[in-house]
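seq as requested:
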Amino acid sequence: MEAVLALEDGRIFRGRSIGAAGERTGEVVFNTSMVGYQEVLTDPSYRGQIVTMTYTEIGNYGVNELDIESSHPQVSGFVVRQLSELHSNWRASKDLNQYLRENKVVGIAEIDTRALTRHLRSRGVLRGCLSTSGADVDTLVAKAKASPDLSRVDLVGEVTCPRPYAWQDAPAGRWPRAAERPGAKDGGAAAPAVSGDAQTAPLHIIAYDYGVKQNILRCLRDAGTRVTVVPAATSAADTLALAPDGVFLSNGPGDPASATYAIESVKGLVGKVPIFGICLGHQILGIAMGATTFKLKFGHRGANQPVKDMRDGRIAITSQNHGYAIDERNLPSTAEVTHVNLNDGTIEGFRHRDEAIFSVQYHPESSPGPHDSLYLFDQFIAMIESRGERPRARGGR
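struct tokens:
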């Protein structure tokens, strides 16, 4: 079956339908990762977007039950150069095309993804319409133009959890990431068990769900904490009533300025509890402290972005997925830039000069991507402890 991707500026790409039949609109973006397509598909930060994978062959290791970042795919559509018809991986339970069909993801293959990527880099991200309906291209271009401007849509409200919950991972042993953490000994150690004695229980972290990835929660667990996940609209007062040792602000989709309720909650937490933010959480924290954000021309999406730590000069290769950045010109004097992107000089991290608060724009949970920045989760815990908060049980770490 033929599929067509029509962009709002009239550019047309024809190819072969993969996944489900149908029609979807969304913001067309590209991701430069060579692997990790399953994590990309299920990352809530891609809500409302048609994602193009720039690597030429996608699907060659199939799909499994563990490499997911949410309960189902979040993308509006999926674009690849070549979909692998066969897969080879001992963890795989099905092929990618079957997974796309089962989850009603409309996709297109056998188009020139290099040309599409160059077009988006030149013109900036564009809205598109991906269709297998056989409609004429003028109709599809019109639908692309009429599709929602994502900066005006509350995407966080679409992906956040409906109510608070205590996060529980998959059964023990199914996710051996602890052994991969820098500094882990003897294969790594699980978080200490929750005890009835409040003085020996792990640190309690409240994680705001703006579209949180599962591996972020695993990393918080591996750092020795118990995690309660709360909806994005949870007030500061309700969060503080849960007696957290620290607050985590998650990744998520869309324009951070549209999540006004989240910004107000964070304003009420600044100075009252240690805070760590990632991606959208980093942007929301910046706005809550008085900064502004701007939309990048084509965003940072991939697993090879170089980031410099301004404090010691070290360079980390990072995984990223965002379309907005904090404007350094409006960063308040209470904030110090700690990390910058070496490709375009945008802010990749900052800390509060006086409070136990820091954030990064990139994804240290490395799913998918390099493990260079996993230490940030331990840094969050060390920051809490250094501020005189209740110490955690040490377990085997």
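The CA atoms of residues 202 and 392 lie 5 Å apart.
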